[in-house]
Design goal:
Bound molecules: zinc ion
Mean pLDDT: 85
Shape: globular
Largest sheet: 4 strands, parallel
CATH class: Alpha Beta
Order of helices and strands: HHEHHHEHHEHEHEHE
Distance between the termini: 56 Å
CATH architecture: 3-Layer(aba) Sandwich
Number of domains: 1
Strand order of the largest sheet: 1-6-5-2
Radius of gyration: 20 Å
Oligomer: single chain
Structural class: alpha/beta
Number of strands: 6
Low-confidence stretches: 200-217
Length: 260
């Protein structure tokens, strides 16, 4: 009886596979989530050419999006990497994952991130954070897509995942004028109160916390923050600013895809 019960998930999985076979996100080939041909067609960004500040595919020396004529950059996070240009199979990957609820793609999202995150970042970071979806999107999808990807990335890297931010429901940016967009997006994130609890200013007599092994309820000093797509960078910038104002010292960013 127990053996039969243990086999039930496998039987159910086989039945579902018969009804809705696994298909390649790029070409619909049956049997795989991403076939080798479509994997080769993913528009991977050459990291030797990419902007080190915002992850754009070009601009290693000077990204005109990040730096003005004086070489001044206003971004709050100090570095970013992006695995793919948001084009072709990359668009289908993100849409299948987020909107078609193909949750098995979380492992692929994490793997793509892992391939471009510099090894020294993994030693540098105290924790892994992610840009959360808002409650309405989580209800609609049934999961927080970047939380799942962060968990997968944590399994690969050994970094602890911290749920640091809540996404507030703000007005659709497309409905706003240019001036209203900035204040709207700045209100999009709130640092969670349980993350703030242990980060009250320390008195001089208190010893400082160890740099790497920090309690889960406190903000990390050095945070690796991930998201699926970086478009203008405004969402990532708002999240990074909220975390820095709350007490995080330094943020580096990794995204699966970069709009360019
Ligand atoms: Zn394919
Ligand atoms: Zn840049």
């Amino acid at each position: 009886m127990n053996t039969f019960r243990n086999l039930l998930p496998e039987i159910a999985g086989g039945f579902l596979e018969l009804l809705w076979p696994t298909r390649c996100i790029g070409c619909d080939k049956i049997g795989v989530l991403l076939c080798s041909r479509c994997d080769n067609e993913l528009p991977r960004i050459d990291q030797l050419m990419a902007c080190p500040r915002c992850g754009a595919p070009y601009g290693k020396i000077l990204c005109t999006e990040c730096y003005d004529s004086q070489g001044f950059c206003e971004l709050s996070f100090c570095a970013a990497v992006a695995a793919l240009e948001y084009d072709g199979v990359a668009v289908r990957l993100v849409k299948e994952y987020k909107d078609q609820h193909e949750r098995r793609l979380s492992a692929l999202m994490a793997h793509l991130l892992y391939q471009v995150i510099p090894a020294d970042w993994l030693l540098w970071a105290n924790a892994l954070g992610y840009i959360p979806a808002d409650n309405r999107a989580i209800r609609r999808r049934g999961f927080d897509h970047m939380q799942d990807a962060a968990s997968e990335l944590a399994n690969i890297t050994g970094l602890p995942v911290m749920h640091l931010l809540d996404k507030c429901e703000v007005v659709d940016q497309r409905l706003l004028g240019r001036a209203a967009r900035e204040s709207n997006i700045n209100a999009a994130f709130a640092v969670r109160s349980d993350a703030l609890q242990s980060n009250q200013p320390r008195s001089p007599s208190q010893p400082s916390a160890p740099s790497r092994a920090q309690p889960r309820s406190s903000l990390p000093a050095k945070l690796l923050l991930i998201d699926d797509v970086l478009t203008t960078g405004a969402t990532m910038e708002a999240a990074a600013r909220a975390l820095l104002e709350a007490g995080v010292d330094d943020i580096r960013v990794a995204v699966v895809a970069r709009v360019w």
